[in-house]
Write a structure and sequence with these properties.
Radius of gyration: 35 Å
CATH superfamily of one domain: Valyl/Leucyl/Isoleucyl-tRNA synthetase, editing domain
Oligomer: single chain
Largest sheet: 7 strands, mixed
Length: 888
RNA sequence: GCGGCCGUGGUGGAAUUGGUAGACACGCAAGACUUAAAAUCUUGUUCCAGUAAUGGAGUGCGGGUUCGAUUCCCGCCGGCCGCACCA
């Protein structure tokens, strides 16, 4: 077996890729320069948690950002494309507890292990700006930010009911509780009263909501989710004063007569968005957790029993939403603010939430479905006060469907005849005038509780003094460093158990007396709320440059998973506003105001088929590795190591437990980084999931070889920047195809539709591999091709570029420019339709007049056949598009 | 329950403002090269009828607007995601 000396040189990714990576590194080409004259472009992907292994989801995420970064570089921008590690958090502690190691060692070993494959993928990253959020320098700056926020009134401490995760032994923010369970542990969350630090995100509720309007390069879906989360509602608070209990005699009456005697001015405040329907009110409803409900329960066994019954209903949201309406008549009555002498009964109702508004509502059954359900069940009056258009006031009846739409108010005293919005205004005006209430805007958004009873996080820089209370650690004493010598033997927070850290040598900065450190650490979502600024400011042990950070922000293109739509992205938007208000950041130059991310793209996951032994149920954990599965001829599957039958399960996100994980390292070794990158970007639209298949990888690998073969078959002495301006015949056709492909693939990158760019690259490659000429047209098309694949397969592109005599690096080559002359044809193919069905086509000069086109169309043989005996009624000629002949 | 997105060949998916449905790729089939295989190349591939020319149907289902609908409107069915009694 001898090598054919004429055989084309083989492309060897294992040799080529590291070689170019070392060239890039030696020339430091990916460094972003703060002082560049070029316009800036900040490309960022959500930085990874250092679990120790990279997975295909990372490859896809970073490959997308890399396409944008490299493309923008070619477009002449100064590109910042950094990488770091979101390295604080519970997995490190859990690993330490499980294996006896130290969270810090575990974390930094993982980072080292992940950095190597990440670099092997050849992303255009400025590694000089790398940091981990667990670096002392990083959390020192974060402590500074905490103190600045405190000065600005954005940090406070209070005892509050908190979400306690009994598995992770820590507090969770509202955003981190999903379906009543901890977002990470999945444990059912309990409510506890605890002393907590809070970030005052509610200060920015309105601004965070308004800011969404300007984010036109964010997915609509994410903006909607955030708006819903902030949950603004405008309405009024209304005071209902107590009235005398009208029951003749009952334990309830006695109770309230007693209470009224001591509290003459008592009453209940409700929140409503529909004060216009006040005349339709027929009851007041209190949350079971309302102070009056509790007071009543303490004094009346029936009420206590009712509260217990409400508490029995499950905690899952689905249970709560479908639970039947339950009520308890308290016997108490309140005065209607507008109707002299009228009173309303007060009920406790299970559907009223204590956590929103005032924990009490007035019920207007005709115009609120919940109130209607409740009223029907307990036989309370239903009085319509909004008349839908076209209904007759005398006969109108709401039945079982509450009417919440527009209409004219009636049965409503001074509000009669007004529409909904005018009615609301008039009602609020009157309430205010009577001093029964005022207009109020409510938000669902709560302040962000950030205390975590954990070790591996940013220490809260606070000293607790018996006399002075909570005192900030002076800035010159930062950082408050985490001790290394900790023990996880006792449950709970190791910082709290530490023999010396908490109190030894700790004195109050204000009074100098012995004091204690705060032992809670900050929620790690805080770490990821400003890291994008730290990259811009080149954070290092010497601190960071906030002015430089301000210049790089906002991030022009952010790429990450949609699972962060509310949590991370909302926190980061809040932090950026806080940093601006503290004077650390200045984004006055930005057209996006205080927004950190001008453009956001949420990419889909990488999925893979799952297989399970057929003689076990899928639930029983009988998953097998896809690589051990082979297909039989009859379409069934077999497990190769055991010969047992296998069934194919769902195609789902790669996960260790389902054994459908593909290790990027193996793909890189087998096929190269370019192939892995190309695969995750081809075929599926970026926002959708992409299914990993063996055949798909092989296809990507074949394609990379095909590109190389085209380059190997090239002997022309022209360089890749050739312009074949006098091309004709096949050469002209190739030029046209190349420029059309270029136009479309550029548009694809701009629109984040890389799969369509990929299709254009395929087409151009196919045309080139068939093209025989060794002329300027070939080189022009090839030059376009190489530069077009560079953002996707940078190593292959460099190798090709250098092989065909390209100067410098393809990374430094400008993006090819479309020649508009190549996009227009002298002759065009015009489809001919008869009654909307395509029957034939015409090849005609592009500027042929309409009447001539009509003549030719009617003369067409196939058209004639289709028209047959029918009479031509009309001919529609859309120039350059279509001809449609209407015949009947 | 409410809101949003989506539904196109065997598969992933294309398709400017409504204008040739199925680009491109995977898979499959046939062929070339080869002793053979792999690799590569060529051709074909929406479905039905037909050797073919050609004809008919066709973008989840049913209607509508239009000369013309994958695209716009109405009503269903199915899937995914978000919210979940927020007054």
């Amino acid at each position: 077996m001898s090598e054919n000396p004429n055989a084309p040189e083989k492309y060897n990714a294992a040799e080529v890729e590291p070689r170019w990576q070392s060239v890039w590194k030696a020339r430091d080409v990916y460094r972003a320069h703060d002082d560049s004259d070029k316009p800036k472009f900040y490309a960022l992907e959500m930085f990874p948690y250092p679990s120790g292994r990279i997975h295909m989801g990372h490859v896809r995420n970073y490959a997308m950002g890399d396409v944008v970064a490299r493309y923008k570089k070619a477009q002449g921008f100064e590109v910042l494309h950094p990488m770091g590690w979101d390295s604080f958090g519970m997995p490190a502690e859990n690993a330490a507890i499980a294996t006896g190691g130290h969270p810090k060692d575990w974390t930094y070993n993982n980072i080292d292990e992940m950095r190597t494959p990440m670099q092997r993928l050849g992303f255009a990253l400025d590694w000089s700006r790398e940091f981990a959020t667990s670096d002392v320098a990083y959390y020192k700056e974060q402590q500074r930010i905490f103190l600045k926020f405190w000065e600005k009134g954005l940090v406070y401490r209070k005892t509050a009911k908190v979400n306690w995760d009994p598995v992770d032994n820590t507090v969770l923010a509202n955003e981190q509780v999903i379906d009543g369970k901890g977002w990470r542990s999945g444990a059912v969350v309990e409510q506890r009263d605890m002393d907590q630090w809070f970030y005052k995100i509610t200060n920015y509720a309105e601004d965070l909501l308004k800011g969404l309007d300007g984010l036109d390069r964010w997915p609509e879906k994410v903006r909607t989710m955030q708006a819903n989360w902030i949950g603004k509602s405008e309405g009024a608070s209304i005071w209902f004063g107590f009235a005398e209990n009208t029951e003749t005699s009952s334990p309830k009456k006695e109770l309230f007569d007693e209470a009224l005697a001591t509290d003459q001015d008592g009453g209940i405040e409700v929140f409503t968005t529909r004060p216009d329907t006040l005349f339709g009110a027929s009851f007041l409803a209190l949350s079971p957790d309302h102070p009056y409900s509790k007071w009543l329960a303490n004094n009346l066994p029936e009420a206590e029993a009712f509260r217990a019954e409400c508490a029995k209903i499950g905690t899952s949201e689905a249970d709560i939403a479908t639970a039947p309406k339950l009520g308890f008549d308290t016997g108490l009555r309140v005065k209607h603010p507008f109707v002299e002498g009228a009173t309303l009964p007060v009920w406790i109702a299970n559907f009223v939430l204590m956590g929103y508004g005032t924990g009490a509502v007035f019920g207007c059954p005709a115009h609120d479905q919940r109130d209607l359900d409740f009223a029907r069940k307990y036989d309370l009056p239903v009085k319509a006060v909004v008349l839908p258009d076209g209904e007759d006031a005398a006969t109108y009846d709401v039945g079982t469907e509450a009417y919440t739409g527009e209409g004219k108010l009636f049965n409503s005293g001074f509000l009669d005849g007004l529409n909904k919005s005018k009615g609301i205004k008039a009602a609020i005006h009157k309430i205010t005038e009577m001093d029964f209430g005022e207009s109020v805007t409510n938000y669902r958004l709560r302040d962000w509780g950030v205390s975590r009873q954990r070790y591996w996080g940013c220490p809260i820089p606070v000293i607790k003094c018996g006399d002075c209370g909570s005192v900030p650690v002076p800035e010159d004493q930062l950082p408050v460093e985490l001790p290394y010598d900790i023990s996880f033997e006792k449950p709970g927070n190791p910082l709290d158990h530490h023999p010396t850290w908490k109190s030894e040598g700790v004195t109050c900065p204000t009074c100098g007396k012995a004091a204690e450190r705060e032992t809670d650490t900050l929620d790690t979502f805080g770490d990821s709320s400003w890291y994008f600024a730290a990259f811009g400011g080149s954070l290092s042990a010497d601190g960071m440059d906030w002015d430089a950070a301000s210049k790089w922000l906002p991030v022009d293109q952010y790429v990450g998973g949609v699972e962060h739509a509310v949590l991370h992205l909302l926190y980061a938007r809040f932090f950026t506003r806080g940093l601006i208000d503290c004077g650390l950041l200045d984004l006055s130059h930005s057209q996006f105001g205080g927004e950190p991310f001008a453009g956001l793209f949420t990419q889909g996951m990488v999925t893979h088929a799952t297989y399970a032994l057929a003689d076990e149920s899928i639930e029983k954990d009988s998953w097998v590795l896809p690589e051990d599965v082979d297909a039989n001829d009859d379409g069934t599957f077999v497990h190769l190591p055991t010969g047992r039958p296998v069934i194919k399960g769902d195609i789902i996100k790669m996960s260790k437990s389902k054994k459908n994980v593909v290790d990027p390292n193996e793909i890189i070794q087998g096929y190269g980084a370019d192939v892995a990158r190309w695969f995750v970007l081809s075929d599926s639209p970026p926002e959708r999931d992409v299914e990993w298949t063996e055949s798909g990888v092989i296809g990507a690998w074949r394609f990379s070889k095909k590109v190389w073969n085209v380059v190997s078959d090239t002997t022309s002495a022209e360089g890749p920047l050739a312009v074949a301006s006098d091309a004709s015949g096949d050469a002209l056709e190739l030029r046209k195809l190349a420029h059309r492909a270029l136009e479309k693939l550029t548009a694809g990158i701009e629109a984040f539709r890389f799969n369509t760019s990929v299709a254009q690259i395929y087409e151009l490659t196919n045309a080139l591999s068939k093209y025989k000429g060794q002329d300027a047209a070939r080189m022009e098309a090839l030059g376009i091709l190489i530069r077009a694949i560079a953002p996707f397969m940078p190593h292959l592109a460099e190798e090709c570029w250098s092989k065909v005599g390209g100067e410098d690096l393809v990374y430094h080559a400008p993006w090819p420019v479309v020649d508009p002359k190549m996009l227009v044809d002298d002759t065009i193919t015009l489809p001919l339709q008869v009654n909307g069905k395509r029957r034939s086509e015409l090849n005609i000069p592009k500027d042929m007049p309409k009447d001539e086109i009509e003549k030719l169309a009617l003369a067409d043989e196939a058209v004639q056949r289709s028209i047959g005996d029918a009479t031509v009624r009309k001919i529609i000629v859309v120039p350059g598009r279509i001809v449609n002949i209407v015949a009947k």
